[in-house]
């Protein structure tokens, strides 16, 4: 917001502005004031200024929300004065007055933070009605039924939202009157029926509050404003901000707006529309409406609405007007808009617009299409797509052949949010969270979802509702989360109380498996296999644009040829971490490796004794004792060599000349041995050794703190033959593949180095093996340009990086272990308290998910600076889990790393995040 010049001589101009009016073609706020008046308030003001039909109103700023909490839920005197002024303006523009029995002014009270939080905070409609104004509204509208329906809605909303009267009490009372009147739906109730509902509602209100329903409209207004500000910190709003990482906001604004009514008869209606399809991104008008209804009827899923295209037949003037407004909004905001509208007796009003929530598929398509339409530039298209949202596009979909064989339980649902989901049925958000915490995959099945279900929706694989449409709460929230959703499956009978549902004549109990196709709106029985996604069309175009802008290289963490192939297809420029220990666990080699481990301590001890032997007789005796275990040791290594070599050949072939960083053995040896008695007995039998020998070996290799124990380069230096075997396998594989005409770039990485001397000795060891392999295969370094470097994961290595760099061609930061050692807590144990630490503000994010830039990040930055002082062209990468996190990638770009490395399916996320980092630097 531009700085305002305030004249000291003017008392009026020196007052702080807390309330912003809009109406009559004028507005106090603008689109760029979202931080002050919230997204809804800014857009209402902006739409007013560009001439759209917006009911007039005013906005209490987010600063008022902040002050409200700071002052113990009290307001500055200026706030009440400015609200009074705005009410008088509304009365002048509308010709109606608050509390006037003949021409009553009715308003809505809604929330509106700077960041969109659909459905998370509270709303009150029809405010201003009381026992006197309800009669005036009947005369004014000539519609008794409509007026009493509006009154009962206001009583229910005010009681529920403002005074916390249990919602179910009102619902049960309404159902009772409907049953007595023989009404199937609310619209079947007569004016007299609704009068009875109002009478009962007032009794319920008195029962729970101990007071009569307030008659004074201004008292109603301030109660409602308090409630909306209060809802900023309700559990569902807090949970939503946590899920979407919404931070740094002052609070919510409150929007007070003149009511217009969609429930005044069949020439009135309400709806929600998107200027483009939020599910697939197509440039088509998309939405739903209901005639003779208010807005909550559409979004709450109480009635299943009609597609917006049908409005043309019902009210062509309003439909055509909507199409014009659709075009105006897209050209003005240069983005897909989600708008709410009401038709009151044939006249169209726009109640809200905002950038619409969309699936990742839609976001990518819209961004690319809008560039082609010259609405936005390529740079804006790259900025507009959330890197994390791409995860939605990178997971499997149903195998079409298998899907055809599956039993359909419902085909009447709406394709509310695309994708495929398989899981066990649950009927409450609480059950969903409990089962998910135990590692189970669940599908949340509800009649309709509400904001209170946000936690269960977040952990579910997919969401099924029996009621509601494309713009219902379930659909909108699922699309924002990237969850598969089938909504409005009217042929599914859900029984929450007994935790079961009926579909296609079958009873589905809680815990049964079902599958959802959110792209088709179909519910299936059982589990359906899935297939891998493909990166084509707009997705491919966006990735190419990102690649043309980013500076960081993108590699992958992969241990198999298949993972390497997947990553390369997704745009990886090589492997940044290949973990060789994963290869030893395969069935055809684990026995050989365990045999090696069983004799390794004995070989090591005898070799040490040999060095200390004082006489020839002692030396001869030790050599004799060493002969058998050494032979076993060497045979185990020999049997492992071809397996490792084959692994690396497959990986090099998959990479087709791209670089491959291979880490030598890292975990301690005890991790490869069974620790239970049955496993030890089976191993003893398989290797034809005594059970006691196995137990003794396991016992001798136990460590108090394995993370800081005999592992990494320490293992390679004390058991050099293991490293030598691995280096031989790598380089022989490289020679074999090179002879087939495929370029190879092996990068051998020594893990857990803490001192320069460790790397110096390790490098000498590696170089000796490489030269032998080159001689045997008649190869030169020019043919296979290898590199030798280290993984920086020990703080000491980071602070002495200038010394370490003397022996390294590259650094790869293993930020998982660097975080553990730098922060002083284990990733395996820290989960018990890290969530609380984040909530308490000790860490802004879980440091294992987002790099701790203030601490661990400084170690990385220091190591880069020291390393470059010695070797200006040293290659610098990151291979911890942080390599796929957008915020961490931004940091990596800023400090000038060469590349980041992440899991295969996060490669596109990293590519886009690296491009966005260029703009954010």
What report would you give on this structure?
By secondary structure, this protein is α/β, with parallel strands linked by helices. It folds into four domains: 248 residues, ATP-grasp fold, A domain (Dna Ligase, domain 1); 108 residues, D-amino Acid Aminotransferase, Chain A, domain 1; 137 residues, Phosphohistidine domain (Glucose Oxidase, domain 1), CATH 3.50.30.10; 336 residues, Alpha-Beta Barrel (TIM Barrel). The protein is 47% helix and 16% strand. It has 37 helices and 32 strands. Strands 13-23-22-15-16-17-18-14 form an eight-stranded mixed β-sheet. An eight-stranded parallel beta barrel has the order 25-26-27-28-29-30-31-32, surrounded by six helices. The longest helix has 40 residues. It is elongated and about 120 Å long. The N terminus is likely disordered.
Topology at a glance:
Elements: H1 11-14, E1 19-23, E2 26-27, H2 34-49, E3 57-60, H3 62-70, H4 77-94, E4 107-113, E5 123-127, H5 133-141, H6 144-162, H7 167-181, H8 191-209, H9 217-230, H10 235-243, E6 252-258, E7 269-274, E8 286-291, H11 295-299, E9 306-307, H12 311-314, H13 316-333, E10 337-344, E11 347-355, H14 360-372, H15 378-384, E12 397-398, H16 400-405, E13 408-410, E14 414-417, E15 420-426, H17 429-437, E16 442-446, H18 454-459, E17 462-465, H19 473-481, E18 484-487, E19 493-495, E20 500-503, E21 506-509, E22 513-517, E23 522-525, E24 530-531, H20 537-549, E25 553-557, H21 561-569, E26 575-579, H22 581-584, H23 587-612, H24 616-655, E27 659-663, H25 677-687, H26 691-701, H27 713-718, H28 720-739, E28 745-750, H29 756-777, E29 787-792, H30 795-799, H31 801-804, E30 810-813, H32 815-823, H33 827-830, H34 834-839, H35 856-870, E31 875-878, H36 886-894, E32 899-902, H37 907-920
Parallel strand pairs: 15-16, 16-17, 17-18, 25-26, 25-32, 26-27, 27-28, 28-29, 29-30, 30-31, 31-32
Antiparallel strand pairs: 1-2, 1-3, 3-6, 4-5, 4-6, 7-8, 7-10, 8-9, 10-11, 12-24, 13-23, 14-18, 15-22, 19-20, 20-21, 22-23
Helix pairs in contact: 5-6, 6-8, 7-8, 14-15, 14-20, 20-37, 21-24, 23-24, 24-28, 25-26, 28-29, 36-37
